[in-house]
Amino acid sequence: MHRLAGIELGGTKTVVVLGQAGRIDERVEFATRDPETTLEEALEVLSGWQGTRALDALGIASFGPIRLEPRATDFGCMLATPKPGWSGAEVRAPFAKELGCPVGLDTDVNGAALGEYRHGAGKGCSSLVYVTIGTGIGGGVLVEGHPVHGSLHPELGHLRLRRARGDGFAGACRFHGDCVEGLLSGPALAARLGCHPGEVPAHDPRWEVIAQDLAELLVHLLLTLAPQRIIVGGGVTHRQRHLLARAIDHVPHLLGGYLEDATPAVLAQRIVLPTLGDDAGPTGALEIAARALAQRPGHAV
Fold it and tell me: Per UniProt, which keywords does this protein have (predicted)?
């Protein structure tokens, strides 16, 4: 069996795992700090594992925006990001240089999407969207099982939404104010609720406007990408599990009868929480590693 490693490089936490496709054998977690410290710590973990037995491939699932085009001169480098000190950081190169094995790279949300597609809530689907609602908001898109890349990668968190009537919250995104991230991310919710969103009880009426905002995003995704499944993960929906159900209840009204089969019962099967939980990203990183190995001539996974 191939010995695979994965890194889920998040804005807050980094997870390094060892295992095989669909199976995590070892895991190390630590806070994401500055690029040099964080990447060196990850490399130290990987080098320790490689000292026992060579790694066949590494998959990196990173926060972004990050350059994914292999032909680009800045391939594997972080682009302009609000994360202090990370703009321009070389994420892939240090591992490719030191480990001497194939190194695959994708976004953290595409990684989570791959994990759920192969081993979780997306099994049996050919197309899906994974949305994470946490410190920021990201979206991973898979079509026929392959992550969508273009000039960059999908940035669903910066879509603009139709606002709920009477909602005067200005938004918290430093770029766009009231985009999806500016309305629904953890910091945005803390700003509009006046406290950590995990502390607000489910019966608080302020969740209703937030649910409408999330429903607007779901409608955008249903109409533009027509996914077979939308998986909504991240810390916000994990702590406030009622929020997704409330949002789904708003979707048929927002669609206005356009999608006749979009009943609450159907949508509840099509728009779901992740089944892998915190393992979605690390499992996806191992999938990225497996795909990088499979692309190497003479190898198969």
Answer: Magnesium, Metal-binding, Zinc
Q: Which residues, listed in sequence order, are joined to residue 5 by a DSSP beta bridge?
A: 18, 58
pLDDT the model gives residue 139? 94
CATH architecture of 4-107+278-294: 2-Layer Sandwich (3.30)
Q: What CATH superfamily classification does 121-274 receive? A: ATPase, nucleotide binding domain (3.30.420.40)
Distance CA 70, CA 228 (A): 29
Query: Is the whole-model pTM more than 0.70?
Result: yes
One DSSP character per residue, 85-109 reads T-TT-BSSHHHHHHH-S-EEEEEHH
Q: Mark 38-56 as b/e (b = at least 16 C-beta within 10 Å).
A: bbebbbebbeebbeeeebb
Distance between CA 66 and CA 57 in Å, rounded?
A: 20
- 71-119 pLDDT, tens digit each: 999 999 999 988 899 999 999 999 999 999 999 999 999 999 999 999 9
